[in-house]
Structure formats: C-alpha cells, structure tokens
Task: inverse folding
C-alpha cells in the first residue's frame, strides 16, 4: 500500500507540474518533470541519482543522429525535384507530393489516435500549410525549371536568416547588433551570387526562390510556435491533412493537363519528395530537435546547402561553378555567427 501511495503521489506531482508549465514537452506529447525541480517523493536519494544519469548521455547522441538524418533528407529535396521534373509536370509534382505525404501523415494520426487540435490552433496550422506544404514546394519547383540545383541551394541557404527575421517580428525577440550585421552580410552574399549567375539582373527563378524564402520562413516560424503546444510532427501532419482537399483537386487537374512520363528518375524523385522531404524528414528532424534543443539542431542544418551542392554533382552531373561553394561557405559563416549570438 505504501508503494502504491507513493506512485500515486508522484503521478499527481507530474500532472500538476505539466499544468503549471514547468514540464518539458516531448515529441509524443507527454510531459516530463523539469530537471531543475526533480521529484524525490517516495524514493531514496541513491535511487533518484541512479535513475537520472544513464538517460542523459544517451539522449543527446540519439537526438543529434536524428537531427542529422533530417538535414540529410532536406538536402536531397532539390535533386529529388529535378529528377521528378524529368517526366512529371511542375504542378503535378507539387500536388502529388503533398497528397502522398498527407495520406501517410493522416494514416499516422489515425493509427495513433491523435486528437484534433483546438480551434485556436487552426489559423497557425493554415499558415504552415500555406508556407511549407504548398508555397515553398510550388515556388521552388517552378524555379528549378530555369535554375540549377546548385544555384537554388545557395539562394535558399538564406532561409535560416529569413526565418530568424520572421521570428523576431512574430515573437518580439531582440537579437543583438552582431546578429543583424551577420544576417545582412549573408543577404548581400546571396543576392550578389544570384545576380552574378543570372548575368547582372535577377531572373525569374531567383524571384521565385526569394518568394519561397518568405513563405517558408513564415511557415517555419508559425510551426515553431505551434510546436511548443503539440509535437512538431503533428504540426506538419495536420497541415498536410488541412491542405489535402486543395491538393487532391490540384493533383487531378494537373494530371489531366500536364504530360506524364513515369521514368525511374521521375518516380524515385516524386516518392522521395513525398515521403522523405515532406514528412519523414520532418519527423526525425523534430524528434532530434526535441532531444538536443533548437539551437544545436539549427547548427546541424547549416550543412544543408553544401550537402545539396554535393548531391547536385553526384546525382545530376551538374557543373559546379567555383563561385557556388565559396558563396555557400560565406553564407554558412554568417549563419554560424547569428547562431552564436542568439545562443
């Protein structure tokens, strides 16, 4: 009886801690007690000390691995899009990837019996759907019809800086002067590279890529806000489900109006975009971020533009201009400075 009473007391303390906001949300939506206020009711000091240390070294290593897998998945998005465009029209690619990802996400939500989000969260989910599910894939896919993947990778390397700016406006955060200087330097490098590669003036592909940065940054910022209230994978899952009626109709119209040639490259590229980039990559990314923290996970994502440049050479046989890696490294340095000043 004493053991049962102790267990009940611990459960009530954990529940009260979660309600008061002192717990730490996990990916599965559960809550664990804060490390600054551990509960020792019903346990001896020796038992409490024995329970805590083993979990600490294992979680960061596993979280870093999951976050790295997410970055690797995202780095293949542009090469996968280029493959898909070899036999599938751009509108069909965008709509089908979202439909397939929504089927997978909806199945996971259904099997796990995830509750429907509260009404107050749906506006934010709609922003995520508009930016991450529809806007960014559509604009980048259209841009890749005239831009190379290496060129697009460097331009989109500005995304973390753009997201930081949106986050500052949305949350009222006040980054340091060094942060904004580094952000401006990164923007200058990216714009200069885009103009130089397009012959002195931004092309249509560059304008589409810059628009993609804006809508994706808005989607990331709103998704990060929602991820404080629900697991991150559920945020993207519900966004995909919310967009499903529109993407289903869009896929039907696109299939009827655009040519379709199912080559091996086209099919593999589409499947990767749907299951790898659009959903599974985000699942491991958010799980890793929950384990090691947003700042550490963001630093891992700094390698994404360089990885995409490597994939564009290995998978697409593109010629890598000497300016591309130089610009990418310069952007990464600027982003690293912003991460350090914010951290």
Result:
């Amino acid at each position: 009886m004493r053991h049962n009473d102790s267990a009940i007391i611990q459960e009530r303390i954990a529940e009260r801690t979660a309600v008061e906001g002192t717990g730490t949300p996990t990916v599965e939506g559960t809550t664990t007690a804060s490390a600054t206020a551990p509960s020792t009711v019903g346990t001896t000091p020796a038992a409490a000390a024995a329970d805590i240390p083993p979990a600490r070294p294992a979680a960061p290593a596993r979280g870093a691995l999951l976050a790295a897998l997410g970055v690797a998945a995202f780095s293949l998005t542009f090469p996968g899009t280029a493959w898909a465009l070899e036999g599938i029209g751009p509108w069909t690619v965008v709509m089908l990837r979202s439909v397939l990802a929504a089927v997978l996400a909806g199945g996971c939500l259904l099997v796990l019996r995830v509750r429907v989000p509260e009404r107050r969260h749906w506006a934010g989910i709609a922003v995520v759907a508009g930016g991450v599910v529809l806007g960014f894939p559509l604009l980048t896919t259209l841009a890749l019809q005239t831009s190379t993947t290496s060129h697009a990778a460097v331009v989109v390397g500005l995304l973390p800086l753009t997201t930081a700016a949106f986050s500052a406006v949305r949350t009222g955060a006040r980054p340091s002067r060094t942060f904004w200087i580094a952000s401006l330097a990164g923007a200058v490098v990216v714009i200069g590279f885009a103009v130089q590669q397009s012959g002195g003036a931004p092309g249509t592909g560059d304008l589409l890529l810059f628009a993609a940065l804006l809508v994706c940054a808005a989607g990331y910022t709103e998704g990060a806000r929602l991820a404080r209230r629900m697991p991150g994978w559920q945020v993207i899952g519900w966004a995909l489900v919310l967009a499903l009626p529109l993407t289903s109709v869009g896929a039907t119209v696109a299939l009827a109006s655009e040519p379709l040639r199912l080559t091996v490259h086209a099919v593999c590229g589409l499947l990767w975009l749907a299951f790898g980039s659009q959903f599974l990559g985000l699942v491991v990314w958010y799980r890793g971020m929950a384990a090691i923290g947003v700042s550490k996970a963001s630093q891992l994502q700094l390698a994404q533009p360089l990885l995409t440049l490597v994939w564009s050479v290995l998978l697409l046989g593109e010629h890598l201009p000497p300016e591309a890696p130089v610009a990418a490294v310069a952007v990464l340095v600027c982003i690293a400075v912003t991460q350090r000043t914010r951290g």
In short: The longest helix spans residues 264-292. Residues 1-58 have pLDDT under 50 and may be disordered. The chain has 15 helices and two strands.
